[in-house]
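Notes from hallway chat w/ T.B., transcribed later so I don't forget. T.B. wanted the structure written out for a chain they're using in a teaching module, and asked if we could keep both sequence and structure tokens in one place. Agreed to drop them here.
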Amino acid sequence: MTEGMGWIVAAEVRGDFDSIDSTRLREVWRKRINDGSMLRLLGKGLRAGVMEQGALTHPETGVVQGGVISPVLAHVFLHHVRDAWFEGEGRPRMQGRCFLLRFADDFVIGCELEADARKIMTVLPKRFARFGLTLHPTKTALIAFRKPKAPQGSESGNGTCTFLGLTHSGTQSRQGFWVMKRRTASKRVRRTKKSLWRWCRNHRHAPLQYQYQMLCAKRRGHDQYYGIRGNFRLLEEVRRAAERAWRYWLSRRSSKSASGWKKFWKLMQTSILPIPRIVHNI
């Protein structure tokens, strides 16, 4: 997302794995692969059934959920439907600069001009419908994404874009420059806190050393993904939530010796959870 891109089209393909047309998928294969044995192997992966509650079913559409080859098949199909189309037909028709960022079935298209963004917003549903795919109605939006001095917001957005669990927004740095700020999406923060709460509840009777090692691993894993510049406050908020959940459920290991904050802080002198750190300085 570079400076000067004033409009963002954020979208997500709904039911990507379930909605892929196997006939069209085979057509895409034949354009890229001319090896008969490889085509037969891909066909076997596509025809593999799904075992649910002891019953084997063979879905007529989509790829096998949980199959080893399913992500590859889905990526190849989406590359033809979205990426190749954007580079071959979409970008040459744009009047201003534009770019495409995608990860699996999530993607954003940045446009310099509003007219280009609205044109893409109109064409995208038709393009995906040709291949039996649909865009998620609530996660697909046209968002004004410009410098703070420009009018913020649009008909369907507030000037922010959530992509891959991070909320992107434009703001001013301490030096007065317009920069991109990325923070953990609010839904991801709530989900992480609930996950830590459930884990501490389910493992409250485990040895303290085991609990400490696992909580440290969870904290480091969280920072490895969300430890991006400008996101330190939310990293610290998750750390405090982990401490509160740990103290709460340790106090319920026994009704005779509740673990209050004073006793818990003594434990924290030797078992300190990792301090949040910025891993990605971008």
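Follow-up for T.B.: The radius of gyration is 24 Å. Might be a good example for the class.
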